[in-house]
Amino acid sequence: MTGRIYNFSAGPAMLPVSVLETARDEMFSFRGTGMSVMEMSHRSNAFAEVLDQAESGLRRLLVVPDSYKILFLQGGASLQFSMVPLNFLGSNESADYIITGAWGKKAAAEAEKCGDVQVIYSSEETGFKTAPISELIFSSHAKYLHFTSNETIEGVEFSRDLDAGGIPVVCDASSNILSKPIDVSKYSLIYAGAQKNIGPSGVTVIIISGEMLDQIPREQHRMLDYRQFAEHDSMPNTPNTWGIYLISLVAEWLTEQGGLTSMGVKNRQKAAYLYKAIDNSDGYYRGHANVDSRSRMNITFRLSSVELDDRFCSEAAMEGLDGLRGHRSLGGIRASIYNAFPFEGVKALVDFMEDFARRNG
Ligand code: PMP
Fold first, then answer.
1. CB-side exposure of 113: number of CA atoms within 13 Å?
2. Mutation test of ligand 1: which of 174, 328, 334 has the most ligand atoms closer than 8 Å to its C-beta?
3. DSSP H or E stretch at residue 73
4. Hey, whose CA ends up nearest to atom 9 of ligand 1?
5. Quick one: which of 144, 175, 178 has its CA closest to 162?
6. What is the CA radius of gyration of the chain?
């Protein structure tokens, strides 16, 4: 990997090297067109093929049922915090929210501007260290249930698909989509900013059921209306063509890697290797999330002081291990190891952790 470092950034995050190489090779003339994807009309046949490859690639990988649409939007996952309630929560209606971290809390705050929000689970008081393990009680009249399958800042992940007993399930899967197989049919709407596991920033992938699309009120603002995107092949206006192109390449790469079952195994192995180093450090490194709620994507831990956390990050960066500083709201260390992050990089971090503990014990 010439000149490449191990980049532990939470997103935008590492992309597969072969994806970058293909994008480089096709930069000046994309498959004989004499122009790059960035320069071609989104209405051209060449781009229609790119869009189709991105869509069909994701559909195959995630085994998305035919009755669901896959859409490519802009505005990040943050826009979805508003778009979901704007489309599905009327002022006299109620939705259930599960809050296991900072992103879920932000999503709920936006929904409150539209209607009634019932927080049926929150781990905020105990510092966002857990995902619910015991049975949840859903409101029978809830329009939908919203949860965040992986909280990127705290490193807290659900280990299962949620069943809300018939209430439509809406999931922010920004930081663990494509990291393992999921049962899409259990969800009514999944959204994910692309910049962690799917591609570059600037595209948000939406997977939405036909039933959910049918519920959108007719008077919705056009650019905030999922139906408009569904009816116009994600192009009611100019989409992020370059981002969608990279998604098509990432989908191809994932297929070559053996698909999501294979990614799931690799991701479990990478995370287990890192958590073992934390657990075997005699308390030198302290994990943030409870063991049963640990994320396989964002591994969060801290040392005994802020000074040591700082020194750890600075020295690691000098060794080519970058992006380890925890989110500014939480501090500590965060190692984000999405699909494209190689096992060798995790090994390099563990070697560094052991050496650092010896030198600064
Ligand atoms: N949800 C989750 C789980 C995230 O990790 C992030 C970003 N890190 C967001 C939402 C917000 O994403 P964006 O910056 O694309 O709006």
1. 11
2. 174
3. strand 68-73
4. 77
5. 144
6. 21
Do the beta carbons of residue 8 and residue 198 sit within 8 Å? no
Give the amino acid at 119.
V
Q: Is the backbone of residue 118 left (phi > 0), alpha (psi -120 to 50) or beta?
A: beta
User: Which pTM value belongs to this model?
Assistant: 0.98
User: Which listed residue (69, 96, 103, 266) is catalytic?
Assistant: 103
Coil, strand or helix at 169: strand
For residue 210, give both structure tokens.
């036909």
Q: What is the pLDDT of residue 115?
A: 98
Any catalytic annotation for residue 253? no
Percentages of the chain per state (helix, strand, coil), in multiples of 5: 40, 15, 45
Distances (CA, A) of 238 to 41, 72, 86, 316: 9, 11, 22, 41
Q: What is the pLDDT of residues 91-122, one digit of tens each?
A: 999 999 999 999 999 999 999 999 999 999 99
**What is the distance between the alpha carbons of residues 317 and 324, in angstroms, rounded to a whole number?**
8
What pLDDT is recorded for position 134?
82
Residues with a CB atom less than 6 Å from ligand 1: 11, 76-78, 103, 148, 152, 172, 174-175, 193
The CA 20 to ligand 1 mean position distance, Å, reads 23
